[in-house]
Amino acid sequence: MLIIGHAxxxxxxxxxxxxxxxxxxxxxxxxxxxxxxxxxSVFLRFPDNARNRIxxxxxxxxxxxxxxxxxxxxxxxxxxxxxxxxxxxxxxxxSLDTGQPDAVxxxxxxxxxxxxxxxxxxxxxxxxxxxxxGLALIGCGLINQQVLRFLTVAxxxxxxxxxxxxxxxxxxxxxxxxxxxxxxxxxxxxxSAEEALAAHRLVSIATTxxxxxxxxxACQPESVVLHLSLRDLHPRAVLSARNxxxxxxxxxxxxxxxxxxxxxxxxxxxxxxxxxxxxxxxxLPSADVPGPVVVSPFGLGVLDIALAxxxxxxxxxxxxxxxxxxxxxxxxxxxxxxxxxREKP
Length: 345
Prior knowledge:
The protein is α/β, with parallel strands linked by helices. It folds into two domains: 2-109 and 301-328, ornithine cyclodeaminase, domain 1 (2-Layer Sandwich), CATH 3.30.1780.10; 129-296, Rossmann fold (3-Layer(aba) Sandwich), CATH 3.40.50.720. It contains twelve helices and 16 strands. The chain has helices spanning 6-13, 17-32, 108-126, 142-154, 168-181, 193-199, 235-239, 248-251, 257-265, 275-279, 301-318, 332-338; strands spanning 2-4, 36-37, 42-46, 49-61, 67-75, 87-94, 101-106, 134-138, 160-164, 186-189, 202-205, 224-227, 242-245, 271-274, 293-296, 322-323. Strands 1, 2, 3, 4, 5, 6, 7 and 16 form an eight-stranded mixed sheet that branches. An eight-stranded parallel sheet has the order 10-9-8-11-12-15-13-14, sandwiched between helices. β6 (87-94) and β7 (101-106) form a beta hairpin. α1 (6-13) runs parallel beside α3 and α2 (17-32) packs across α3 (108-126). The two termini are 40 Å apart.
């Protein structure tokens, strides 16, 4: 068993955004080809606290070599007020020969990286004909921090960055960090989400909202909205857009904005394509609605497994992490072999 902690995961992934985007792209392609198994996520909720939850995401990736395992990720929004990250996670990888767990990996960095990489990939594909001249971020937490890093690699450093958060102090702190990362970028903080939506043709929304609170009427024509937190948009806003998802069956669950739109219309005709199809070279269908393009990825566990496999293999090659040889039961035959032989007197 290889135990890989937070610092090692960062050491492997930080500064390698292009490679992470490619890993995510390949996982999406395999999923589109039917070479994955991604059961529905399991949501553990608490009767005395509706805001908190822990989610289990099992998945199999039919890559070469294949990989399988599960991400167990918690979301406790009040952690932000304590100075802690909202989400924490662990990923278990299992041997496909024996089924035994062979790696446990700290998962929050992987989870944020795969979310940001998927968003950056979608933005790269959807703006290929006309790159945005700036970027607006709604929600100034860890996910949009990573989105900014990955979009800078996938596209280019934005000439202008507009920020909004329900907590102005968090937005100002984000602006300070962003200025260090992007010294040539003009950065401004605005007081409303509508101002951010109107500022640029590329917008990323990553908040802790549990109920819809945004329309898209403020968006510029041909905007691409990365709707990463999934519950910010009113159903009518979803229905006014061309919608790109990672998997319709996964995203239309758990009262996401798209789930509410499905309940409102009785179908999923408002979903136009998937990230996997776009990555495979398909074009976004012609506009049958005049609104923006909205990308709503539920976050497939297979992306976590793909990145966890990369982290595990890289860490093992570099001699990083902590190896525990007796985590799983030791076979009796191995114990007998290991015992010293005794000569008869």
